Amino acid sequence: MVTIDLTTPPPAPTHLLDGLPRRVALSLPELRLIAEEAGGAPLPFDLADVATPSSLDSRLGMSAGSTEDTAYAAALLALHDPADSLARRGMITDDGIDPGLVGAVGLLATPDLALEIDIATAGGGQVKAWHRMAAGAVATLATVDGIVFELAWFGADQWAGELARVAVVPEDAKLSKSAVPSAVLMPFPLADSAGEALRSGRADLVQVLVAQRSGHVTTGGKGHSDATATDIVGALHNEAQGRLRVLAARIGAEGTTTVGVVSWVLLADGWHALLPHHEGEEPFVEIRLVAADDLATQLAPVLAEVTA
């Protein structure tokens, strides 16, 4: 059984550089070249090299998706030759590609434990990151556009700090006071059905749904009034301006995986964790205000479960 401790601070480094992860910015062609050097290691994502318009596009005009795909393909074609650009940056020498780069990409392909992180904001920003761990080492890959990637590698004792770095509130988020308390508990069916009502333009139904579960929206064990609960449930959806989702998986001996999930929502005052649990047989969700440093703490029991 693999044990991952994300709560204990790492030992103090003996040298400044010992405590710092190594990070490298790479274009997609550079990344693929390194992967080839690492024995053809598969990368943890699937992106098309070239996007071409479909036959319908040529007859009906370019769709938004096709326009984006074509722009993406054009951006890739405009990049320099990966071998030349890596050589200019000192990452390829007469001895070959930097062994650290090759080892990091190799680790991405052969982990014991894998995290996939997806962060999206209402403004259209999105970050995708892949964290892979094996034998006390971690390699991470992250991108916002599928063209430029950040590759990093470090010891597992530095993982908590890297997770906090990922979970920083996006710069484009506008923070203010939230109508959602720092900790509130509500039935999951209420949160789900209220969200559907709001998405359908039926905000008037939220009050009815809350009244059906009167007293079940609580903070510290004390029920909120129906009026306050209606405001809270509505704000949970109306304030939402982003989400963070982490999928954790263990790569089993036979290729099987065990999966756990951590989900956060970005409300007016910052990230709130969505913590599901049951009271009796009924599913509930706790919505709790969290900070970036809390991601490692919340992942710890998930990782304990998937590595058991």
From N to C, what is the helix and strand string? EHHHHEEHEEEEHEHHEEHEEEEH
Shape: elongated
Biggest sheet features: 10 strands, antiparallel
Provide the number of structural domains: 2
Task: Give the strand tally.
Answer: 14
Strand order of the largest sheet: 1-7-6-5-4-11-12-13-14-8
Please identify the structural class as seen in this structure: alpha+beta
How large a portion of the residues is in β-strands, by DSSP E?
A: 25-35%
Sequence stretches where pLDDT stays below 50 over 5 or more residues: 1-5, 7-17, 48-64
What is the helix tally? Answer: 10
Distance between the termini: 6 Å
What is Rg? 23 Å
Query: Helix proportion of residues, in percent?
Result: 25-40%
Q: Write down the overall mean pLDDT.
A: 85
Q: What does it look like?
A:
The chain folds into 2 domains: 16-166, no CATH class; 183-306, no CATH class. The chain has 10 helices and 14 strands. It has helices spanning 28-37, 55-60, 64-77, 82-88, 99-109, 159-166, 188-199, 204-212, 226-238, 294-306; strands at 22-27, 92-93, 96-97, 113-121, 126-134, 137-143, 148-155, 183-187, 218-219, 222-223, 242-251, 257-267, 270-279, 282-289. It has a 10-stranded antiparallel β-sheet, with helices on both faces. The chain has a two-stranded antiparallel ribbon with strand order 2-3. Strands 9-10 form a two-stranded antiparallel sheet. A hairpin with a 5-residue loop joins strand 11 (242-251) and strand 12 (257-267). Helix 1 packs across helix 4 (82-88), helix 1 packs across helix 5 (99-109) and helix 8 packs across helix 9 (226-238). It is elongated, with a radius of gyration of 23 Å. The protein starts with 21 loop residues before the first strand and ends with a helix.
